[in-house]
User: Fold this.
Amino acid sequence: MSCYRGRRNRGSCGDFGDVGGVSKDCVKDTVRRILDAQKEVAEEGLHDCRTSCDRSIEDLLSPGMEERGRHTTIPFMLTCRQTCKIWVGTGFCGHGGDMGNHGHFECIESPIFKVQGFVGGSDNCVRLELLLPVDQKPNESMQENHGSDVCSDIGHCYFKNLRRTGICITVDLDCFCGISCLPATTPYEYNS
Assistant:
């Protein structure tokens, strides 16, 4: 999906309207569909693309998945409207003792998220949890730089699954022009 058509003067995240023939609400609508699918799994079609948000949503809701153990999450990445780059969320988690006096903080960055919910009935503000790759193994054929920060940081490794961090951030979905879904999975819990 293209973030813009031709050269444009880039202003604030709300200046784009329809972008490249795609409604500015497509990211928000897709995140809402992911959340609805995840809720449906908790409560109780094939495509040409091997990986897509539609395919991940269908896989999550597929009746055949119940027999194999249904997944709970559709991880995704967001493309920032102003830069057309994958957006990396940042947060801190604390370790040990009373965090004000005896503990320490660890900075966590990840471009991969799980939607936790929309905030206060908003159509734009959503709470996202940062997910981290686990059980990473080098992919010898992909050691060179891929040209994007995400592929350079994560793309040179295979990873088995994702791990929840418990770090949630609130973002305005109007600031994003693209979404890329990973296949449905069940992330490991915080301490796994």
About this structure: The chain has one domain: 26-181.
